[in-house]
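User: Continuing from earlier, I have the next pair ready.

Assistant: Great, send them over.

User: Here they are, in order.

Assistant: Folding the first of the pair now:
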Amino acid sequence: MLLFATLALARPTEGGSWAFDETDTVVTYDSEQGLVRVWYSVEGNNAVDLDDVDGSGVPDFVEAVGASSENVLLVYETAGFRLPLSDEGKGGSNALDAYLVDFGGDADGMWASECGGSSGACSGYFTMENDFAGYGYGDLDEAVRVLTSHELFHGVQAAYAQSEAVWFLEGTATWAEHLYDPYNDDFIRFCSYYIDDAGRSLSEPPAGPVPAFAYATALWWFHLAERHGEAVMVEMMEAFADHPDDDELLVAMSEIEAAHDSTLWDDFSEFSMRNLATGDRAGAYTGEYPFAAELREVKDEEAGTSFNVEDRVYPLATVYYELDWAGGDLYFAMAEDAPDLFVSVHALDAEGRALDATYFPEPGPVSQSVSAEAGTYWIVLSNPSLADDSTKVPTCIGTAADIEPCLPDEVDTGDDTAGGDDDTGETGSGCGCTSAPAVPLATAVMLGLGLVTRRRRGLG
């Protein structure tokens, strides 16, 4: 777990949960440009690996921490972010202080802000694991790249504001790992945790200690930066300075999207569809993630040959359904108007890969159909809004008879419906809806082939 402390903590040289002790011989190393001072132990319980291949007199690991930290700061500065504020000599110099101590497997890094009770911008320091023994990183270089980029972005955040919006703090810091080291294993691994829990609201991670989902929102920030350019993340941090709370951040985010000639609706609905084309379902979707095949696949809320469901869809969240379709006219209807919801239908190709959406049903009590070949289809049901509450609407998918429970009385699902030529004369069964019957969809859309998881390493 990468920890982010917004309250001043005793520095490792002064005691605390993760600190040097009486067994340690503590020395310092100033990085090449003097931007970072690394504190480490050469003997004792917190001693680092003393390998010194270059014969500089400083352990290679310690030099790597200093060099990576300076490189990270340069990348962030070049991107337009504020750099961590000076601590004005608290560590014996104006350099940013990095402490290497043994976390004992409980965590692998921590940023601590020293605000003196202030809720605004403040300085701080970071602490990281002294040897990463047993942490599961590929090698020490990988561990250093991940930890310096992640923790120093917390320092960037602290230069703007303090906040308890952990989904934003950890998600953007994990995205920053990608900015520094594109498509590193740690970033991609956490993105999969978002895929695992796509039905959860973006800004509502599980309660308790910082969960994987908070880090996993990095996938959303990657999507946003890819659609609008990485400068959009600088704009988000500037907005964060004035709006550090959850709800305000979401509103500010939507305003930034509008300034980029987009909307939260457009961005999040595309995000929901993009997340379908991952893992074994990657490879055929236009504009899928560069690392889509390395992610896990989204889970279906329900699988079957038809659906009559009433699942709750939370704001900025998505549920997915897997349909095994025998072929013929595929019907869709909802029992109520649902303006907060977005729906798309995707066929899988012969190799099981998700294709672009070719059908966008209207979320409402309308009998709609499309001619669909036999095969597997996925239905994306997303709430790309900032609604105050979740939406829970009976949703029916399948044959004309299957959707009757979701239609108002006396809605004909016969030959007036696009793609249908069987006038049954049957009416809806009456779901208690008060909406007036809507005109059936007038245009058929062709579907089908040929028709058109900070808890870090070891987190389970």
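And the other member of the pair:
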Amino acid sequence: MQVAYITQTGEPNVIQIGEQPSPEPSATQVLIKVHAVAVNPIDTYIRSGAVALPIEFPYTIGCDLAGVVEKCGANVKRFEPGDRVWGSNQGLFGRKGSFSQFAAVDEDWLYPIPEKQSFDEAAAAALVGITAHLGLFLHANLKPGEVVFINGGTGGVGSAVVQLAKAKGAKVIATVGSAEKKKICEDWGADCVLDYRSPSLDDDIKSFADANGGLNIWWETQREPTFDRTVSLLAKRGRMVLMAGRTARPEFPVGPFYVKDLKLCGFAMFNATPDEQRACANDLNELANQGKWTLPIGATFPLTHAAEAHRLQEENTLNKAGTLQGKIVLHPW
């Protein structure tokens, strides 16, 4: 089978495409013919060495995948050959990555693809969907009617936060960088969409939030959070969700934070248990079938262009190029 892999960390050009033997599933694994995989910022951090994980070379890149079950291990109970499945969490903690034509994946990390979703949509939504669901509901305990702010409403995680929060009855404030992105957010149901460059941005956030009972959840996607700003805008008993900024060391306003009964929720989706992630996946599947959940796809490539796909992701994640609107999906066949 064809595989995208690395033998050392570094720039995107360290990614190689080559032939490797197709895997044989263990007793608890499912063999998948992979139809689509997706790129996430974490994939580029692992490949570059920016996030130092204990990986063995040659290392197959990628976390997300969608495909069809070819064979099941003896102890697999939830799937059978022919099932369409999606999953994330590959390429970590000893698990093989997803950028290959076939993948052997433990059934704990797999979920049925909803009837109304394509392979591309399922792969694109995998990691970001589970991440947004964990943050909003497991960690921040979002309730209907609460007000949620998200930086970057059309980004990978931002797109998911907007849609999932709206699906559960929240009011959503999102920032964007163009009229086109503003319309996309509004089509998803965002209640207040603001230009992140506006000189009156914070006043506009406060005005909408105060008119709707106060700002309850601030979801931070920026790599350099400004806690003074966020704490001042959050309502009493508000929650700030952090899932970015590994090297950030900002000042923290301890007094203003604790006298408002605020909570700071930091999390990484890979720390969630299989049961916790499966609960997210089940809900995401239901919302997809109801037409309340999808992810825009901004670019597609064949697997042989994995280096180009990583380069495009980095240009937009690290360099803020603004040339990508939606997820990057690759096809192994």
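Worth noting for the second one:
The chain has two domains: 2-117+294-331, 128-269. The chain has a mean pLDDT of 96.
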